[in-house]
Each structure stands twice: as C-alpha cells, then as structure tokens.
Amino acid sequence: MNEILNGLGYGFSVAFQWENLLFVLIGVTVGTVIGLIPGLGPVATIALLLPLTYTLEPASAIVMLAGIYYGSMYGGRIPAILLRMPGDASAVITTFDGYPLAQQGRAGPALGITAIGSFLGGTVAIIGLTLLAPTLANVAGDISSPDMFVLAGLGLLMIAFIGTGSRPKALIAAALGILISIVGLDPTTAEQRLTFGSFELTAGIHIVAVAVGVFGIGEIMFNAQQGFYGGLAKTTIDRVLPTKTDWIRSRFAIARASVIGFFVGIIPGGGGTISSVLAYGAERRFSKQPEKFGKGAIDGLAATETADNASSNSAFIPLLTLGVPPNPVLALIFGALLLHNITPGPGLVNDHPDVFWGVIASMYVGNVVLLLLNLPLIALFVKMLKIPGKVMAPIILMVAVAGVYSVRNSMFDVLLAIMFGVVGYFLRVFNFDLGPFILGFILGPILEEHFRRTMILSDGSFMIFLQRPIPLIIMSLLIIAVVWFAYDSRRRKKRLLPTMDQYQEAERTIGSTDRKH
Description:
Blueprint: H1 2-15, H2 18-35, H3 41-49, H4 58-75, H5 77-82, H6 91-103, H7 107-140, H8 145-162, H9 167-181, E1 184-185, E2 192-193, H10 207-226, H11 244-266, H12 271-286, H13 298-314, H14 316-322, H15 328-339, H16 348-351, H17 353-384, H18 389-408, H19 411-429, H20 434-457, H21 464-467, H22 469-491, H23 500-513
Antiparallel strand pairs: 1-2
C-alpha cells in the first residue's frame, strides 16, 4: 500500500504541473465539444486528434487523450438524450430513457444525472485502477511470450463474441486489420511484405493514417450519404440538477452500475456497450417499477451512464499493465504511446513512471474537471447542437487532413488516409464493426512478435501452449465462454431483459429516423 501511495503522490506531482493541468482541461473540453457532433463518438474523436499529440511530451499527450476519451463520451450523451442520435454504440442504451425524459420536458435533470453518474462511476473505477494496476503490473512481469500471444489473441476473439455486431464480420474485420499491419519490412528478415514495389510502403502504414481515415474521413463520408443532421430545434433547459426524488431513485442504481462497469471494462471486448446493457438489465430487475423502463426511467438512465464511464476508466488496467488494449479507443491510445517510443506493458510502471502514475492521477483531476465543466455549461453545449452537420463536416475534414500531414510531413500518408476513409465507408455500408479492424491493426504486430518468440522457445512445437498455466487457463475460459454464448443465444428471445438483439434493433430504428431531426 505504501508503494501505491508513493506512486500516486508522484503521479499527482506530474498531473499538477501547469502544462498537464492545461492539457487535462483541453482534453476534457475538446472531447466534450467534438463528442456533441452526432455520428463521431470517442473513437473518431481520438482518431482525428491523435496527430496533435505527436509534438507533446508523452505524459502530456496521454493525459490529454484520456481527457478527450471520457469528455467525448459525456458529450456524445447530449445528442443521444436531446435528439435520439447516439454519438457512439454505447449511447444507444442512453436513448432508451434519456430521449423520453427530454420529450417530457426533463432534459435538464436527465443531463444532470448523466454528469453525476458518470463522475461517481468514474471515481469508483479510478480508485480500483489505482489499487489494482500496480499489483497486476508486478505480476505481469513474469508473463512470457506464449502468455502474451494468447492474451492478445483473446482480446481479438472476445471482440467477436462479446461485440454487438455479426461475429463472422467482426473476425473478418480483425483479420483485415492484421493484414494491413504486416505491410512493410519483416521485423526479423527485413524482407518486403505487401509493398508492391512502393518505397513509401516499406516503412509500413502509420497508425494515424489508418485511424483518421477509417474513423474520421470514413465516418464523414457515411454521414454525408445518410444526410447530415440539421441541427437542434429550440430546446429550453431550465433545471439541470436532479430533484431529491430523482437522486433517491438513482443512488443504488449508480452504486450497482459502478461495480458492473468496473469489472466489464477490464474484460477485452467488454467496453461501454456491454456494461451499459448489463447495468440497464440489472437495474430493470431490481426496480420496483420496471414498466417505466424505456419510457423515461431516470434510474435506468443513471445506470447506463455510470456503467459506461466506469468501464471506460477501468479499461486502462489491461492497457497499462499488460500492453493489451481492450477496446478500440484504448487501441488508439496504445498507438499514441508507440508514437512516443513507449511500449505499454509490465515495464511501464518502472520505465516510465511519469506516464503510468501521471495518467492515473490525471484521471482524478479530469473527472472533477468534467463534472465542474459540464453542469454549468450544459445550456451552452445544447446551443452548439444547433450548428448543422453540413457546416461542421468540412471543418472536421480539413483538420483531419492537416493532422495526418503534420505527423510525418507526408502527402503519401494523406493519400493513405483518404484510401482508408473509403475502406471505412464501405465497412460501415456493409455493417462491419470498425472496432475489430483497428484492434487487429494494433494487435497484429504483437501477435506476430510473440508467436515467433514462442516458436523459437519451443523449437516449433505448439505443445508449449498446453504446458504453461496462463495459456491453459485462458483457453479453458474461452471454451467456457463460447459454450455459454451459444447457450445464451437460444435463451435471448425468452428473456424479459434487453438483449443484444433488442439493442441492435433499437440502433437500426434510430439510424433510420435520426436524420429527420
């Protein structure tokens, strides 16, 4: 415990440096503002702003990206509640009760309980991160290449089994991401792979070009085809703070959702969508008035938002300690660390304590800043939604292109970003989940490196995976998970709780109607 307190004290000394405080504020503010734009969400927001971190100090860069992450998550809830236009996948659950509350003239309390629930859920998760991450980092120091290969593979497979889309399509997208990641020179033999004679491709494909193209430019193209949102009609926000009755009804929902979100966030592939669905379903069971869910239940809204924010903070545990990003946003932050020649994993706490402890401490600061920023500025953020999407799209596109060019001063990277924008557009058109693609791109080199090392250690024998405890335990758990999901899929239609099938139907319904606003 003394080691944790000393590390946290050092982290606060880093976080309270004036430049890092400034970047926390910038990250939270920019994340919230860009998160307001319907259709972008935290993944696209991080991808678009990733180039801006290239010239910053590593700790400052990650602190700002973390602020952008949870800032954009809250910002995405505002159009979900007011317009029934979720900014990201997990915000679909927000529309179930948030939009009906807004229709009843209670948009202010809905946004207020969202901010408070996000703050409390995030705080619980950050405390858990503080206590668990250093211990896990020390244990992770004994993890070898076979263990890392299985862990990285598990992260990709869990995306397919836990995700909300088609599992075959998720695996195809992940495989495509892995294929793109091997373009360039072989790290062992220096032979060219998939370069097609291009000198520029021998250096590999840059993470910024891929991320900005797929999640930024591709999203803009998709929104252009669907029709940009026309801007928010006149909406009055009179009261922001929830009433005493709202708080009494939501307090236990927030407590339960904080725990659910924390543990789901640690699981590779868990993320905000899964934690929101589980917390919403659990709260509907505990509620004395389950019939109000879907019609404006403020405790249902509080549960989804608390779980979502808790899972987003606890997701940093596998990233910082194992070097395995559990979701697409953390995969982009992983890429940001690689830009600064920092490899997340067991050695991070010793090799770069300023980054490890600085990020954790900055989360405490950022969580408070997010609450203090959002409650008084909700009315201002609502006014920003009146800007039509067709006005914002060209500005975002120019920022994206300039950001890609600035990283390596390369027009080739800009062309690649445009090409991946087309790829991202067609993936969206054919209902492919983009998350597995970027995770495949990030985890591909990790899988290759540790698989090669494993084969060298075992003289080419695959039996090494059955002789070590961690791969054996993980593969056993994976088999159990596959059997459970197969069994659970047969029970879904008989359950009263909202399932992933219902979630997908709601998402399709929203997608067909949100442009009318």
